[in-house]
Amino acid sequence: MGIDLIAGGRVKTGHRKAPVSKNVYVKLLVRLYRFLERRTNSKFNSIVLKRLFLSRVNRPAVSLSAIARNMKGKENRIAVVIGSVTNDERLLVVPKLSVCCLHISESARARVVKAGGEVITLDQLALRAPTGKKTVLLRGRRMARESARYFGAPGVPHSHVKPHVRSKGRKFERARGRRNGCGYKA
Predict the structure, then answer these.
(1) Where are the beta strands (DSSP E) in the chain?
(2) How far is residue 124's CA from residue 135's CA, in Å, rounded to a whole number?
(3) Which residues lie closer than 8 Å to 175 by C-beta, 6 or more apart?
(4) Are 61 and 139 in contact (CB under 8 A)?
(5) Is 29 helix (H, G, I), strand (E, B) or coil?
(6) Model confidence at 1, in pLDDT bands (50, 70, 90)?
(7) Residue 177 has what DSSP assignment?
């Protein structure tokens, strides 16, 4: 038996070694952090490089309130997000923050700057903290998507997975497996 090249050849590792994105700025950042990872003995740079390779689904947005919550008591540090930073209107008072990210919404940027904080890019961070000193690396909740609620097996005991149902009502998936009188109750 040979190797079936049409099916993709040998089994490869699942992780990315380069970004799939066509964005030239992301590609430049990859070149910069590849250099920093090689020349510095810092784990921070290797983590940033790995996260630059990720797909958009795996780079969930981080809200201003989450950044403010995680930066409490770390006022002199830079919050680093390899992804988007979005505004949160439920956060009434924005503290003074130093944020570094790939992308930030206009309203979030305005609120950070108004509070006396600053927003910097990843290449500016490389000049300021080449080894990631005085930084806090943050990321969003990957499984907060609606589709994540359907992952797994619904109807199994102690499973809280949402079933794919045509409609939610009296006549839809309410009998077997939902009550003891009809077969079993999960």
Answers:
(1) 62-63, 78-86, 98-104, 118-120, 135-138
(2) 13
(3) 182, 183
(4) no
(5) helix
(6) low
(7) B
